[in-house]
Each structure stands twice: as C-alpha cells, then as structure tokens.
Amino acid sequence: MNLLGIATTFLRATSVQQTPVRYIRNKHRNVKWRNLRAKKVLPVELPDYEELRRETKGQLTPEEIRAMMKKEGMFPSRPYNERPILLTTTDTILEPFIPPEGDGKLSTLTKDGVKQRYELLEKKGKTMLNLRKLRRFEEEFDSGDFAMKAQDIYIEAHNTLIKGDYEKLHDLVTELAFPDMLDGTNNKTMRWKWVESIEMPRLVHVRVAPILTKTNLYGQITVRIHGRQLLSVYDRFGRLMYGSEDLVKNVLEYVVFEKHLANPYGAWRLHGKIVPSWAPPRDAVLKTFKKPILETPSEEFLKRKQERQKIKDDEELDKENIDPRVEVPPPPPSSETKQQAPA
After folding, report:
1. Distance CA 255, CA 307 (A)
2. What is the Rg, in whole angstroms, of the alpha carbon atoms belonging to the chain?
3. Of 161, 256, 262, which is closest to residue 215 (Cα–Cα)?
4. CB of 257 within 8 A of CB of 269?
5. Measured between alpha carbons, how far is 173 from 165 in angstroms, rounded to an integer?
6. What are the C-alpha distances in Å from 237 to residues 189, 233, 240?
7. What mean pLDDT comes out for the span 197-209?
8. What residues contact 141, with CB distance under 8 A and at least 6 apart?
9. For residue 315, with 0-12 CB atoms within 10 Å meaning exposed, 13-18 middle and 19 or more buried, which class applies?
10. Residue 187: left (phi > 0), alpha (psi -120 to 50), or beta?
11. Which candidate in 106, 211, 223, 281 could, as Cys together with 150 as Cys, close a disulfide (CB 3.0–4.6 Å)?
12. How far apart are CA 88 and CA 141, in angstroms?
C-alpha cells in the first residue's frame, strides 16, 4: 500500500470519529423506578387571569359563560326565587282596625255619623263571626278576661325591654314586633313606668285567618289600652333625648296581639300597634352633636374676599348709574336689509 492510500484511510477514520453524537446524560442507570419518577412531576394548569377579570366585571357573554362552565363540569345555576316563611307568626296585621277620629262617636244626624255607625256595625259583625272560630280552639275564651291579660302582657313586654332581657322578650312579642321594639335603642338608656289605667282595656277587633292551608289558622285581637305612663330616653352621654321622668302622660294605644291557633303550645304575644292617621305628632328628639372647631381665616383669604366684594359692588353701582330714559340706538342694517328696503 502506498502512502497516498494510507493517508486517505487515516483521514476517513478521523472524520468518522469526529461526527457529533447526541446522548441523554441525565438518564438514570436503573430503569426499574421510571414510572414512579415520572409521577413526581405533575402538570399544573395556570389560571387565566384575563378571563377571571372579565368574569368579575360581567363582560362575558352567555355563550362564553356556558362554555366555561361546561369545560369545568359545572351545572348551570337555577334562579333562587324562594321566600323564607316563619310559621310561628304572620308578617302583617290582618285587616287592621281603623279607630274613629278623635276616638269618639259622631252624631247620627250627620252623613259622616251614619257612615261611621254603619262601618262599626259591619266590623262588629265580622268580629262576632271570628270569635266563633276562635272559641273552637279556646272554649273558655272571655273578652273581658283577655283584655286584662293583654294589658299585663303589654306592661311586662315593655318592662322586659327596659331591662334588656331579649330572651324573655321573644316569649312576649312576635318576630314582627321584636325588631320594631329594638329599633333605635342601641347605646340608649331608657326609663319607662306604667302608672295607672285611665279606662279599662277592652277588645275592639278580632280576626282569624288561614295561611297556606285551611287548617293553619292565626288569630289576631286588637285591644284598646288607655293609661298613664312615664318615659325618658337618654343618649350614650347621659343627656335627655326624649320624654321626662317627672311628666306623666296619658297614652291611648290600639295594640294587636297574635296567637298561632293551630299550634297547641301557642301563646298570645304582642304583634304590633296601630297608629291612626289623625294621631298627633310625637315630640322632637333632642340630639347631641359634636361642637365644630372654627378656624380663624387667614389674611390672604380675607384679602381675596374683600377684592371679590369690591368688584361685585362696582358692577352693581354701574348698573344703577344707567339712565333708563336714554334710548339705545338700533344696530345698523345689514346689506340684505338694504337691498330689500323700498327706494
């Protein structure tokens, strides 16, 4: 073999050895735990913040919302139109009693007197019919005894409110009257006292009505309570806001009591008060306010104020100096007006 062949063979061998080859350098030598090593890495789906931002701002169309919920496997939400119902009491006063104006009777010789007498007879007839329904559940019901019992419930409920015993107050008033009695009593100190009765309490209105079903009956009785009371309300600073501890006032109220007749363990509770439209307005409430801190105005502010006032006075003086007898000359005619004017 000549030297040229040896050189050619050597160059070919060298070129073959210098060919780059790619190897996996991080491959484990033992393939036994390959599946377990693969499970150590979990694919994480990052949230789409742009889509979330559009969702919070309500910029997504119904089709996009449907596609997004379908992708996540969520069922479409149904509209919630249900209304919570409390079976122990009603949320209103059934056919509220409207007391006559002035709490008196008009003369039957007048038109209003005849109308009032007719309405009273109609209401009395309905009251007697509802009393029959009520006596199906309370056979020993007596109007006079119940009126005295209602007055005792009225006094005990107000005394319990003054003491702050809200657990006992739930046994004396319904869930409708409870928030009304506590309204505006936060951070207040109240003093209330029942002095005496001016007139005997009497039953004036009875209603029995079913709710949801015919057998689920509720009874409401309106009692006229006329007595003398003391009331004083103090704010959190101890200052008198309303009423007086020495001034006794005559108070006439029409109080509604309710009972769930279908419940054998039901009890009569205070349900609300009827305030007629002709009732006199209540006394104003004296409120305590923080005294404002008045800052002394700066010299620069006073100077600017004086300059503005001086300019305003000068403008008013110029208006006063204009003589109304001086006629203002009319504006010069335009070119179009000159052409249309007759020769």
Report:
1. 65
2. 45
3. 262
4. yes
5. 12
6. 10, 11, 9
7. 91
8. 131, 134, 135
9. exposed
10. left
11. 223
12. 21
Q: What is the pLDDT of residues 94-108, one digit of tens each?
A: 888 888 776 655 555
Q: What torsion do the CA atoms of 298, 300, 304, 310 make, to the nearest 10 degrees?
A: 90
Q: Are 216 and 137 in contact (CB under 8 A)?
A: no
pLDDT tens readout for residues 228-252:
999 999 998 888 999 888 889 999 9
For residues 227 and 249, the answer to whether their CB atoms sit within 8 Å is no
With beta carbons less than 8 A apart as the criterion, state whether 220 and 255 touch.
Answer: no
Q: What is the DSSP string of 80-108?
A: -------TTS-SS-SS---PPGGGS---T
Residue with tokens 């100096």: 321
> Which two structure tokens, joined as six digits, stand for 85?
């119902």
Residue 340: what are its φ and ψ, rounded to 5°? -80, -15
Pairing of strands 202-210, 269-274: unpaired
Query: What distance in Å separates the CA atoms of residue 154 and residue 172, rounded to the nearest whole number?
Result: 8
Question: Collapsing DSSP states into helix, strand and coil, what is residue 194?
Answer: strand
For residue 19, give every residue at least 6 positions away whose Cβ sits within 8 Å of its Cβ, in sequence order, or none: none
pLDDT-based confidence at residue 343 (cuts at 50, 70, 90):
very low
Tokens matching residue 106: 């008009």
- So what's the pLDDT on residue 226? 93
Structure-token pair, residue 288: 């305590």
Q: What is the 3-state secondary structure (H, E, C) of 276-324?
A: CCCCCCCCCCCCCCCCCCCCCCCHHHHHHHHHHHHHHHHHHHHHHHCCC
Which two tokens mark 105? Answer: 């009777």
Percent share of the chain, pLDDT over 70: 80
Rounded to the nearest integer, the mean pLDDT of the chain is 81
